[in-house]
Every structure is written in C-alpha cells, then in structure tokens.
Amino acid sequence: MIFTTQKISDSYWKVSIENPPVNVFDASFSKQLIILMDEMEAEENLKVVVFESANPDFFVAHVELLNITDFPKGTGKTGLSISWPDIAKRLEQAPFVSIASIRGRARGLGSEFVQAFDIRFASKEKAFFGQPEIGIGSFPGGGGLERLHLLTGKARALEIILSGNDYDAETAALYGWVNRAVPDAELDAFVTNFAERIASFDKFAIASIKSIMNERAVLPKNDHIMETQTRFFQSLESPESRQRIKRLLDNGLQTYGDVELNLGKHL
Amino acid sequence: MIFTTQKISDSYWKVSIENPPVNVFDASFSKQLIILMDEMEAEENLKVVVFESANPDFFVAHVELLNITDFPKGTGKTGLSISWPDIAKRLEQAPFVSIASIRGRARGLGSEFVQAFDIRFASKEKAFFGQPEIGIGSFPGGGGLERLHLLTGKARALEIILSGNDYDAETAALYGWVNRAVPDAELDAFVTNFAERIASFDKFAIASIKSIMNERAVLPKNDHIMETQTRFFQSLESPESRQRIKRLLDNGLQTYGDVELNLGKHL
Amino acid sequence: MIFTTQKISDSYWKVSIENPPVNVFDASFSKQLIILMDEMEAEENLKVVVFESANPDFFVAHVELLNITDFPKGTGKTGLSISWPDIAKRLEQAPFVSIASIRGRARGLGSEFVQAFDIRFASKEKAFFGQPEIGIGSFPGGGGLERLHLLTGKARALEIILSGNDYDAETAALYGWVNRAVPDAELDAFVTNFAERIASFDKFAIASIKSIMNERAVLPKNDHIMETQTRFFQSLESPESRQRIKRLLDNGLQTYGDVELNLGKHL
C-alpha cells in the first residue's frame, strides 16, 4: 500500500505516501492513486484531504524511469490520460480541498504532483523542489509546462525548468511555487489547524468557491497537457536521453543515496 | 458623513473613512460612496485620491449584515450594480489614480473595497486582511472571487478564501494582496510623498497609462462579477448561513470588541 | 563597438555593453543590436547568452532623447519595428536562453530591454530599476505597458509606471521584475554557474521548453506593442513633454552625474 488513508472524520482525511526507497511515481503509484481518487470522490461529506510523506527525505522523487510501459493506459472521465493528467484535473475540479504538506524532495513528476493540489505548504528546512527533466534531455511532461508558470510567472518557470536546479522552500515560496514555507517544527500543527478549520465550514461554500474560482482563473488546457505528455515520452526515446538516463541510473538514480538526495548537483 | 474629503489641491484629494463603531460597509456607506465617486469623476483636474481610515483598528470591517435590503438598487453606467460593483469598475477606469492607505482590518467587502483601488499600501504592524465569508457558509460576493486571484495567484486566493483566516500585512505583501507593507511610523509620509509625486505629473500621461494598462492586463468580467454577487446574496438565505450569522451577531459582530478585532479566530 | 561578444564556446556567449557615458539606448545601440541578434540566430549551437554591462553604474540608462529620428526604420521578420520591438520578440522566440546579469541602472527602455530577456538576475546592492517616462509626460513605449505587468501583476506595474520611482533590486525581486537579487560579490559566479549549467544540457530540450512555454504562457500582442510605441513617440511631441525633456537635459540628462544616477529623485 503506497497510500495509507487516515479518515479522521467523514470530512477530513489524511493520506501518507510511502513507496520505498525514494517514493518514485511508478505504475503502482499511478494505479493506487486512481483507486484513492475514486474513493475521495465517492465520500460526499469530504471537505479536505491532506497528503504527506512517510519518508522525511522524499515527498515524491520523480517518475519511475525503468518501467514506464507499465503505467495504466487510456483516458479517464476528464478526457485526459488516466496515468496522471486525469487525476490532476479531478483534484482541481473536486468539491473538496486538496493540500500537500511537503517534507523532502518533490522533483519532476513529484513537483507536478503537488502543482495539481489546491494548496501547498512546505517545510522551510526539509522541502526541496525541482524540474530536473532537462538533465535527461527532456522537459516536464506531467503538467509542469502548463501549471508551473501559473504559480511563478513565466520568467521564473523558465529559470526552474531550464536549469533543472534544486530549490529550497523559501525560494519556492518567494516564487509562488508553494503557498508558504513553514518552519519544520511547526508544519504539522499548522497544517492540522488549517485542515480542521476548513473541515468546520460548510461543504456547499467550499464546493462553490472552488467551482466559481475554476471559471474565473486561468487553468491549463487539456490539449496542451496531452500534447506535452506525448512529446515528453517521445523525447525519452532519443539516443541522447537514453544515454543521460543510463548514466544517472548507473550512478544511483532511484536508490536512496547522494544522486537522489542532491539530484540538482548530479545533472 | 462617512467620507470626509480633504481637497489638498484640484489634483490631489485625501478621503478619510469613519463609520462607527467598526467602519462597516452599510447602505449609507454605499450611498455616500456613489456621491463621492460622482464628485471625483466631475473634477477634471483630479490626478490622485488617497483613502484612509479615521479608525486605526478598522479600515472597512465588512458588509453590514443586518440591513442588506437598504442598499441602493439598480445598475450604474458600467452595467453593474450601483451598490458597489459599479463603483469598483469606475475606480478601475477612472483617469485618476486611487490609492488605499490601510490601517486596521479590511475584511470581506472591506478587502474587496481595497482590491478595486489601483494601488494598496498597508501598515506593516496595523493592517490585517481577510475574506471571512466562508465562516457564514458563503463566499466573497463583491469581487473577491474575480479580483483577488489576479493579485495573489489562484493557489493563494484559494488558501485565503477557503480558510477565512486573518492575514498580516507582511504576508499580504508576499502574496501580492497589497503592493507593499510599510512600517506604521513611516506609512503616512510614504503615501503622502507618493501621492504628491503623482500629482506633479501630467494628467494626460496618468490617464493614458491607466487606459492602456486596462486594455493589456486581465480584468474581471462583468458577468462574472454580477453572477457571484447574485449567488452571494442567495447563499445568505440558507438556514445554515442564517444560523452562523446569528451566532456571530450574538457574540458581538458589528460592535467594537474581540469578535471584530479577531474575526479569523471566531469563525 | 557597443557590444563586445566573448564566445566562450559555440553554445555559451557573453556580451558586454558599453556606450559611454551612461549606456543610452541610441540609434547605434539599435543598429549594432540588430547585427548581434542576426549573429546569435545564425549560430545553431548557441544555447545561452549572458548580457552584462561594462559600466557598473549603468546597465542601460534609457532611450536616447536627442536624436530619435536616427533609429532604424521599418519592420523586421516578426512584423514589429526593427528599432527594438522586433528584437524583443526574437529574443522571446529564440531557441537559446537569454540572461540579463544586471549591475547599475536599467530605466525606461533599459528596463524594457531586460524585460525581453528570458531570465533576469540583479546585483542586490548595485542594480536599480525604473520606468521614468511619466516624468517627461509620457509612458513606457518599448514594451513596458505590455510586459511589466506579466512579471509583477497589474497593481505593482501601475505603481512603478505611475510613480516613475527608482526601485532597488530586492524590491524588484519581491515584485517579480527580476528573477532574484544576488549579493553583488556573488553575482558573477552565480550567473556563470547558471549559464554553464544550461550550456551543458541538450539544445533540443532547451528549444522545446522555450517553444512550448511560449504557447502556454500569456505573451504581449504585436498590435499592442506597436500601438503603444506609436503613441509614445506622439506623446514626446507635446509642448509639455518637450519642456520637461529640455529641463532634464539642461540639468544633465544623458551625461554622467547626479541626474542620471538618481533620476527618480529628479523627475
């Protein structure tokens, strides 16, 4: 079980992520996330869900690069691929609030995973963010080219995506990548208070706010999301990309160690 | 007289707001604001108007909740309700610059009031902001769902509106809700210098900058503003909302005291 | 030679700007920039270009105001004026990354010059920014009314353009005008590391990221850029503008001295 759901009440759920050794977003992650999404949508009293990681060093490392063919295929109810883009859009459109409480690394698809949440709070000392795809001759394929600039503006999104660098939580907060950086010792209490507060309000008001906001704010377009995802997988097939991926895997990618901990440096 | 206008010159006016005990935005506020807006538009040499509060604890508390039926009815020259949305759009389109110099609380319609100004400066120690509508089972109905995300981005607007929390001026500045937070002891001199500076420039240039910017930047749509306002008033009619409003009024809402001072805590 | 190009490799160029005494953007600047732009586009291996100033007090002061009729005329391949708007758009669309490493003043067209780069890094102590056009009865004519609000949001863009004030690098970073402010002693090493890093990645990935982002993010419209430029030059013809320009020139504009160093104060 990658996702352990603690149902604090009908209206407030907490989900812990654990996929050793570094919480990669692999085929099992995708399949179990689809089941969890169905469960969240089915609980009509649900008001708020908090996602956190059981691994203090990794929130979600990145997409699994060895077995990408195992990911679930086909499109979901939003018309997007069920492997992930469909889930992202369902989170956006859900009548409940999704919150990522981030400790550890959230890079690549891990960063794009948290971009799909309504709200992101990050440990000031222990959260790190990156879009390292350029290091394997590619680019963000799971929404980063569509959502990150809506959070940070175009210039900072280009800086992040073109450099593949790791960003600490304070810089991420300055850039708008996360809502705010909270001192690590205070993060859990802060997020719990925030979530309990929302759980005390009316479901009708929560759902109305999200649905009205979704009509007012700029959201990514489905065809952009799909086009980028297709081009991302194509880019991984190039000899140059294969070679860069092989070198990183040989050096320890997807195992717990210095390459995963300091990926920005190793690109 | 809720608004006291000090005409420092033809080109520079200062307006002080006083509607005891907590500066609620009530029917009289609305009616007198319409007259003031007509006066500002009629002064063809006007270049800059600064609004401040005579009450150091409250800029504008929120909408009056007991007598909402007294608000002026009908649509104004912009096609929007004259009670407030029409004024907001006229401020946006005016050939003069509107500045809010904020001390004290600006919550709900008070927050939406300042969102309609061109520029917002806030006392670092004494200004507080919130959209507390969720606490009465509702949502911002005076432009907050249309304008706040243009200032803060969607994720932070959702955080603010879904939590109903109070925000201090430094967080508001980080989020873009206000242009900047200025130490309270420096605020008046800072705003005066800023306004006098603008008053020294050409009216033609000022009006050109605003009209060109209004064609370049994303602005709220009239039908969005109107739809949200209608849904806001409908939401107040629900039994759940009536009960939440009654409880807050019983505890001291709309009187000077702890509920108004620390509304975020009491929701 | 206003631009000195150091070709560190096929993929990484560094350009130093020197146009004494204060690096004005004059007709020669425009003509040589067109040649440089052609060179950059012709080098198919180019991945990253860094622009910096040889003058620590001035990055680019502003447009030359005495001989504006000497600027090259006609439209370039983007359909925009070749004097500058065409270059701005070509930088945006280029398959390489453009970085401004800013020391000294970047005001007016100097500010608009750096707004056209993909990424802006500024010396925390020595970089200053402004849009002083209002001080000559005019408004930004080289893209500032189209690009600045995309970086800072509308409210802060209005504050900057309506005040004509000088902004330090930390405020510019808070507002999003620049990506970040870097301590002056660290700026060169920071930018060099950043540029070398990008130069180590694949050209295909770099070009893909820029072209995909250009389809996803909001960009200025050609007709807006052209309309504002036309109106800018018209505004300079008014008696009021001529008088304000003459007074500034009499006081030392376009020479090295207090007016240029502290232009915000002198408007």
Automatic annotation (TrEMBL), chains A, B, C:
For this UniProt entry, which residues form the secretion signal?
Answer: none
The domain of life is Bacteria
Which GO MF terms does the UniProt record name?
catalytic activity
Pfam families referenced in this protein's UniProt entry, alphabetically:
ECH_1 (PF00378)
PANTHER family found in the cross-reference section = EG:BACN32G11.4 PROTEIN (PTHR43459:SF1), ENOYL-COA HYDRATASE (PTHR43459)
The entry's protein name is Enoyl-CoA hydratase
